[in-house]
Amino acid sequence: AVIAHKEKTEPAVHAYLSDSHEAALAVATKVDEKIANGETISPLAGIPGAIKDNICIKDQKATCASKMLENFVPPYNATVIEKLVSQDYVSLGKVNMDEFAMGGSTENSALAKTTNPWNADYVPGGSSGGSAAAVSAGSAVWALGSDTGGSIRQPGAYCGVVGLKPTYGNVSRYGLIAFASSLDQIGPVTRDVTDAAIVLNAITGHDHRDSTSIPGERPDYTQSLVSDVKGLKIGMPKEYFGDGINSEVREAIEKAAKTYEALGAQIVEVSLPTSKYALSAYYIIALAEASSNLARYDGVSYGLRVPADNLVEMSTKTRTQGFGPEVQRRILLGTYVLSSGYYDAYYLKALKARRLIKNEFDAAFENVDVLLTPTAPNTAFKFGEKINDPLSMYMEDICTTPVNLAGIPGISIPAGFASNGMPIGMQLLAPAMGEEVLLRAAYTFE
Ligand code: GLN
């Protein structure tokens, strides 16, 4: 049924870059047999999902929506895929994204244009735009995305679905093609909070292949699906409701706060003054790490190779033709902030700001259980509106990037609609490994 529905939505939405229907149907048949034999199956078994195209699945292309990796077929599974395979997961295919997860509208994809299922004139958000558009259109029941500075939560908000960025280290990054390794995290994009808990359960856990993976057992996150916020303290950081926030978005979040109050939660104003440095710190740290991570695409080991007379020319031509404009801009900026003479002024300074931002969140969570903010300052924008103005595109990340810098979990859930009919997302934040209270607060509102 989902494949049939997908066939109807895809011509307009174009969330997918490749499909794996045959493999999906084979697993579905196997699951049917298990059910017929009375075997217990996992909650995700046979439920059709979609995987962002920067997550490696053995023998399937992982393009990162880049010409550089257009024909790259990984010889191994990401840890999250290994886990899903053991639970009889079904994927209908790999979904579109901004090239190398760099962007906020999926317009940076070098391979396809994905539209917002609510209105095809609008972007689906990014970089996990394909994941959010597929779930929103119903061409996947759930999806995996990745979030470095908002790439699960912001497209979730723009497409009216749920997007969860887990705590840094909660979910293994092994097999996720790196953008900025100290910020990247894989997470679920789903229709509701219950599904987010189910998918998180399926992918969470310590992994010895990822040195930043958090050791220890994980709880059963579906136990947090409790509709009760009585006595919960919810902080609203005043800096997230300032001038840059669209008034309809602000009103929707304030209305959500009233709902929480009516349900017995206590709303308190908090202040996170260092947040104003987060966007700058993010765009220094993320780009510095990206310039280093993307050095591996040299035309030698794998990916695109443009032939030339000598090695340097080959590498130069390969990188010039293989990377799109945004990726090139980021490699240049990242190289600049790491170069001698500028390292202290930019990179080191950004690292210090990052620590202060984290300390400020830690202090806030001594007084409140969760924080409530908008997910993005605006609702989805139209194609072409920001693509030629990188700074205005980056501004859409002001509410999400502090969260990655601090390593804490965040979830975006639907919070109504703007007058133009586009969905509004609200963001809830919790302390590191506080996914349980996060899910409870989100579930109660929903
Ligand atoms: N929009 C942000 C950026 O362009 C976030 C991207 C992401 O989370 N992968 O860097």
TrEMBL record:
Location of the Amidase domain: 1-439
Source lineage: Bacteria, Bacillati, Bacillota, Negativicutes, Veillonellales
Similarity comment: Belongs to the amidase family. GatA subfamily.
Enzymatic reactions: L-glutamyl-tRNA(Gln) + L-glutamine + ATP + H2O = L-glutaminyl-tRNA(Gln) + L-glutamate + ADP + phosphate + H(+)
Keyword Nucleotide-binding on entry: yes
Catalytic activity, EC: 6.3.5.7
Record keyword Nucleotide-binding present: yes
Described function: Allows the formation of correctly charged Gln-tRNA(Gln) through the transamidation of misacylated Glu-tRNA(Gln) in organisms which lack glutaminyl-tRNA synthetase. The reaction takes place in the presence of glutamine and ATP through an activated gamma-phospho-Glu-tRNA(Gln).
Listed GO CC annotations: glutamyl-tRNA(Gln) amidotransferase complex
GO biological process: translation
The protein's name: Glutamyl-tRNA(Gln) amidotransferase subunit A
